[in-house]
Amino acid sequence: MDSIKTLNSITDTLLQSPSALSQSDRRQVLQACDRLRAFESPADSITRLVFSAHQLMALRLGIDSKLFDAIAAHVDSVKAAERNPEQSSESIPLNLSEIYESSRADPLLIRRIVRFLVAMNVLHEVDQDHFISTPFAATLVSSSPFSAAVIHSTHFTTVLSRLPEYFHANGWKCPDDGLNGPFQFALDTKGHYFDFLSSTPYYGQAFDTVMSMPFRRRGRDWFDFYPVANRLSVTNDSQTLLEYDFFQAQPVRGAKAYFMRTVLHDWPDKQAKVILGRVRDAMSFDSVLLISETLLPESGALLPSVISDMQMMGSFASLERTEYQWRVLLEDSGLELVHIWLPEGCDNARSLAEQPALLEAKLKSQQC
Question: How do 257-261 and 288-293 pair as beta strands?
């Protein structure tokens, strides 16, 4: 078909210089690729989905075995020996025998991991037991935030894999207690997920790294579209750091504004009502509570939004909330939602997936 020839021609042209594309153009290309999945047969789709977990685990094995560290170290040593620091990593051939010595795994296991990574195009094979690295492989060294993302995600599969058992055991009811949910069921523990992270530095550090990655700071800052000057009069610009347990009484009373950013999505309504109640008790009639959180659309939610919702369910027995769910939660906590602030034009499922909303709440009228 002529259309197939045209598609292949466009693809070949784009692949000649992929780095030349702007961020906007690159995203449009990827979105076009996603649309082409309409040509997948059901068998194609199930095969892709079923085996995606294996690919992520292959990356995790490469990270934990220090394979990617060993590859990067060898590449760096070649560049240093040849006094050519600008040399492309993809031009430096690697021999498996040179990698064994620096990795913590036995040679057969390394060969099997490398074979998988070659099939994923993470590494490129040039001959038997000879390969070259790629820019992607270079991002998976131990010090990289991308390796932390893999560690965090693969550990979460422990919880995901037991969700069916959890729901069978709990009558297919949504979890509603942060201390008795899918995470506790999967790991057979009574502690909260945050307690686990505190007591397990390997996973705790990976979690902290992922939370600080640039993709987490999506969209515009709330104070760029909230009328700060009109609604909040700042009489003292000094800052005081104050340790605070939000399950206990709020120590600052009668403040003009209280602010929470991505706090409440970590807690189901049972605990979220307690947190909100502590703030409510400290608020005066002219106080406002500003909540920066994801706003899940009532319909048409995109994959990133629903993935986040499942993450919340698995880790914290909590959820990403729709406008209706936020209204009910605030109402049940003695507060009322006054306004939802979003940048101009942020009015569809895609924009909501990329831009946190700012919810403004105050005491219920009868409480003022």
Answer: parallel
Tokens for 148, please give them.
């932390």
Which is it for strands 93-95 and 130-132: parallel, antiparallel or unpaired? antiparallel
Which class for 224: exposed (0-12), middle (13-18), buried (19 or more C-beta within 10 A)? exposed
- Please report the pLDDT score of residue 111 as a whole number: 93
**pLDDT score of 350:** 73
Specify the 3-state DSSP secondary structure of 22.
coil
Contact at 8 Å (CB) between 358 and 291?
Answer: yes
Strands of 128-199, DSSP E: 130-132
- Cβ atoms of 289 and 362 within 8 Å: the answer is yes
pTM for this prediction: 0.86
Cα(172)–Cα(187) distance, rounded to whole angstroms?
19
Q: Of residues 124, 130, 265, 339, which has the active-site annotation?
A: 265
CB distance 355 to 220 below 8 Å: yes
**pLDDT level of residue 158 (50, 70, 90 thresholds):** very high
What distance in Å separates the CA atoms of residue 115 and residue 289, rounded to the nearest whole number? Answer: 54
Query: Given this model, what pLDDT does residue 28 score?
Result: 84
CB atoms within 10 A of CB 284: 11
**Statement: residue 99 has pLDDT above 90:** no
H helix or E strand, kind and range, residue 93? strand 93-95
Q: Which amino acid is at 313?
A: M
265 catalytic residue (yes or no): yes
Above pLDDT 70, what percent of the chain?
95
pLDDT, tens only, 250-291? 999 999 999 999 999 999 999 999 999 999 999 999 999 999
Q: Dihedral of CA 274/311/337/323: which sign?
A: negative
Sequence-ordered list of residues with C-beta below 8 angstroms from that of 255, at least 6 positions apart, any chain? 282, 283, 287
Q: What is the dihedral of CA 199, 200, 205, 207, to 10 degrees?
A: -90
Say how many C-beta atoms besides its own lie within 10 A of residue 264's C-beta: 25
16-30, 35-49, 271-285: range with highest mean pLDDT = 271-285
First to last CA, the chain: 70
Residue 138, pLDDT > 70, answer: yes
